[in-house]
Amino acid sequence: MDNDRKVLRFWCDCEGRPFSIQYFLADDTLEVREIHHQNDGHDNFACLLRRRKLPENCEVKQPGQAFIGDNYLTCDEIFPEKPIDVYGHVMRIQGVDEFTQQFYKDKYNRHFEVGGISQPAPRTVKPPQVPCHNPLMGQEEDSLGYIYKLVPDRPKPNFFKALDNQAKILRFTARFNTRVPEDVDRRFIISFYLADDSIGIYEPNQKNSGIVSGKFLERKKYKNVHNNQEWITPSDMALDGDVTINGHSFHILSCDDYTQKYLDAYLC
Fold it and tell me: For the chain, which domains are there?
């Protein structure tokens, strides 16, 4: 009863792995626990030895010879420079807590250094390197999912934006910024879909141009290389201005009435 709740705590090292030994003065039993840290490469078992008395000689011999005796480890047999043999595990004492230090100083006149187990510094987290998007491999949101997660989530579109702007399309007429004779007279219709900020480009038919008309650029979101790789918005497509879409430089010539009204309200 006098030693109830009085525990001696030793911080030990065994083959480079940290352990803690709790010695209970009430019944001279001890418990050995392994101290783990993140990514230490060992199974996370809490107890190496459950609470029990530790025999001085734990060697199991052949039948007919001496077995484990009745002599058990007591607190007066623990010294700062003497390791503790726990069933073949040699525990070298690295430090104790303040109660243990004061206990041995008052009762046995022994000095134990106060210390503990120092956890290794966490590894420096390197930001993931985002490779250049390959347009042949789908949308950029899908590709980014595999960089930040092993099992990526499905990209979540802006549902309310898509619902409010479901049938709203801005249309512009444009030409190439080029001096190549074959491309000077080519005209394009740029459609900007407000539902998802995607862009599609169509080239109308021109007689005797020698160029096959039809879809010039697939509908998807494109980035503005002149604006820190931000997604192209209607403000980047001003009349009589230039815009680069997927590496092609266009000069905006005109737009329809709905687009003009939207730009007036949007830019204001």
Answer: 7-107 (2.30.29.170), 158-267 (2.30.29.170)
pLDDT of residue 249: 93
Backbone angles phi, psi at 172, to 5 degrees: -130, 150
Mean pLDDT, residues 121-146 taken together: 77
d(CA 12, CA 250): 72
DSSP state letters, 144-189 = HHHHH-SSPPPP---HHHHHHTTT-EEEEEEEES---HHHHT-EEE
Strand, helix or coil for residue 33: strand
HSE, side-chain direction, 13 A CA sphere, residue 184: 3
Question: Which residues fall within 8 angstroms of residue 227, CB to CB, at 6 or more apart?
Answer: 236
Pairing of strands 29-34, 17-24: antiparallel
pTM across the whole model: 0.53
Q: What are phi and psi of 196, to 5 degrees?
A: -135, 15
Largest distance between two CA atoms of the chain: 111
Task: Give the H or E element holding residue 140.
Answer: helix 140-148
Cα–Cα distance between 178 and 36 in angstroms, integer?
Answer: 66
160 φ/ψ sector (left φ>0, alpha ψ -120 to 50, else beta): alpha
The distance from CA 197 to its chain's CA centroid, rounded to whole angstroms, is: 29
Q: How many CB atoms lie within 10 A of CB 127?
A: 5
On the CB side of 229, how many CA atoms lie within 13 Å of its CA?
3
- In 10 A of CB 110, how many CB atoms? 14
In tens, the pLDDT along 88-110 reads 899 999 999 999 999 999 999 99
- Return d(Cα 50, Cα 29) in angstroms, integer: 9
Residue whose token pair is 């074959």: 182
Most confident option among 62-71, 122-131, 188-197, 218-227: 188-197
